[in-house]
Amino acid sequence: MTGETGLGMVAADAAAIPLAARTRGLRKVYRGTVAVDHVDLDVPMGAVLGMLGPNGSGKTTTIRMLLGLVMPTAGEVELLGHRLPDGAAAALPEVGALVESPGFHSFLSGRENLLRLAAAEPHLHSGRIPAAVSESLERVGLTGAANRRYKGYSLGMKQRLGLAAALLVPRRFVILDEPTNGLDPAGTREVRSVIADLHAAGTTVLVSSHLLAEVEATCTHVAVLNQGTVVAQGELAELLDSGNAGLLITTPEITLAVDALRDNRIPARAVPDGVRADLTATTAPAVVETLVRAGVPVHEVRRDRTGLEDLFARLTEDGAAAEAAEFDLALPIPEEAR
Amino acid sequence: MTAMTLGEIQRPDARRAPLGRLLRSELRMVLRRPRTLILVGLLALVPVIAGIGIWIAADASANSGNSVDEGLAGLVDGNGLLLPVFALVIGLNMLLPLTGAMLAADALAGEAASGTMRTLLLAPVSRSRLLAVKAFGVATVTLFVVALMAFTGTIAGVILLGGDGMMTMSGTTLPLGEALGRILLTVLLVTVQVWALAAVALAVSAWTEHPLIVVVVALGVVILSGVLSAIPALDWLDPVLMTTSWMGIPEVIRDPLPTGTLTEGVLRAACYIVIGYSLALSRMLSRDG
Lengths: 338, 289
Description:
- The complex is a heterodimer.
- Chain A is α/β, with parallel strands linked by helices.
- Chain A has two domains: 4-241, Rossmann fold (3-Layer(aba) Sandwich); 245-303, UreE, C-terminal domain (Alpha-Beta Plaits), CATH 3.30.70.
- Chain A has 14 helices and 15 strands.
- In chain A, strand 5 (74-79) and strand 6 form a beta hairpin.
- Chain A is elongated, with a radius of gyration of 23 Å.
- Chain B has one domain (19-286).
- Chain B is globular.
- Chains A and B meet through helix 3 and helix 4 of A and helix 1, helix 2 and helix 7 of B.
């Protein structure tokens, strides 16, 4: 869709940034139903990538293929530089994951469940297992319930235990699938702070969520999935800007401002307290210059950022493909990068 | 952070957890599962109950002047060291296959259903290694249950029915040492037969997420092969039926030992074990986690 030169630049950029995970042409067909198709996902090293998408958009299937749990029908997956499935043994010890609902034995306590998983962790020395388990329980606030049977755990406690399992040993890459499912507001905040801690420590995090506010608050990057394909991905700030670039100008002379802008072929319309100028075809300085020349008193100028919610709604609506085309200039949609 | 990370990771180059640690963890888990414990407890009681039954029947027949039943049960009266053999032969009819099927069902299908298989695969434990660990768990617990039945059977037999030797079906009496040897041999033979069924059950277990299906299929195999072997027109099928070996187990108390029949039974079981684990492995390598 976009020009050749633009694509070349994107490819060069992609090569420069080390990636924690990378998929190309990923496709999964379950009994004739295409769950995921043409997924080219880049997870930059050190990023917190929020994976967004409506139910059934292929988030979990993509994550399961990233982790080697499910064999792709076609396409390739690279995890921490290792090609799957052959590189799984090398990559997975450094990856912590909470996929779908946490899976534990109901007749064992939280601690016993973690001890069992710790026994299977290649990087954990046998002598350090009890300490690692205790620290992990402490980290998710489960110390008090550690010796209770998993059967009696609330949904939130189960989710916390799943998180504790993902963080049993220091990881380079943590994948959390709907980590705030079933958590109360305090639990949600804790997950957010765990993600912030991981990010601060340099760990790459991929978090799938349907809670947009969550993603907006914690993520540096976003990938939006719809109907099994990535419809947009990139840095969060960049995505929000590109979504609907506009400039909000606060001025008492609304009519004068709108006329001045339209005379200079800049689309503009009146909004409460001022004017909104469209930046698709121009830049912010040009808008301000036009206004000042026309003698419009400008009190305040700021970027009109689309909320993630608006962006998400537009990307995942029916006919999203046509909408997504708008983003091509600003967003490296990797399929075109080749 | 880097320094901290390096300090905490103690086996940074390891790609697999130590095998012994995995096996211990598996056994601990299986033996903590309430239904395993209940089944083990009940099976340990089977020889005791059988012993009490024979003891009462013997009492009653002594009073009325009639002899106890014919066959193995009749032989056990006053011949306590035969009780463990008798109990294991009864157990192999249904209870021990049920145990093997249940262990196999929990091992893969159960873990898949509860999502715990996924967490193990992510640790990571490779798929073939996971199957090996699971097979070890099933095999060890099976051996443990069979040995436990023999143990309680021997104790109950000696106390309730008495006897310091083992009277064989051939009419001779074996001394204590040799009698214990025969009991041990029975334990091994019965265990191998349960392993064979468990291997078939594990193959099914690798295919499904529903433990109940595994138990149903495994017991279906047992019942079907029992029925087939009972039809004279289908005698030609006998060499491939699992139950043929099971029916040969009582031969263990003949004197001299009919090694041919017993070896054939073990070889037949070995075939089922190889087939079962091959199918289980091929499915494990491709199944979705």
